[in-house]
Amino acid sequence: MQPTTGMPSDSDVDLHVPRQRWELRRAPWAVLGVISAGGVLGACARHALALAWPHPPGGYPWATFVTNVSGCLLIGVLLVLVSEVWSAHRLLRPFLGVGVLGGYTTFSTYTVEVERMVAAGAARTALLYLGGTALAALAATYLGITITRRLTGNTARRKEQR
Fold this sequence. Notes:
Blueprint: H1 18-21, H2 29-52, H3 62-85, H4 92-104, H5 107-119, H6 123-152, H7 154-161
Helix pairs in contact: 2-4, 3-4, 3-6, 5-6
């Protein structure tokens, strides 16, 4: 909450831009609705992948690994598109970024799976999964950003802004 106004603060709203300031004045119901709808879609996709690719106790959870890494790649793509390329509708980023990709990725399951692998006696696999997922997710995000900027020709504009 913002201390002086009692209104919720939004870290991605630049208060110096009048169009973005307006985001804080609107009722949050539309945003909450699209986040919820997107979350349902993302969670259903994640669940389908987990059902299609099960793993034994102590085994490497490939479905969760692929889900989290592909979700990070897609968030990198999305961030470039909505912040540098498109003049997107105000609900697109909450729907896709927070809703769909937030529901699709599952870093909470990732931590539970690490704990279960350790409990099953597969500490080495757990450590590999713990570090491998974090590194792969960061690399995928960077790759998504870099490739999208190159494909959209946005690298030259980014350098000009500096």
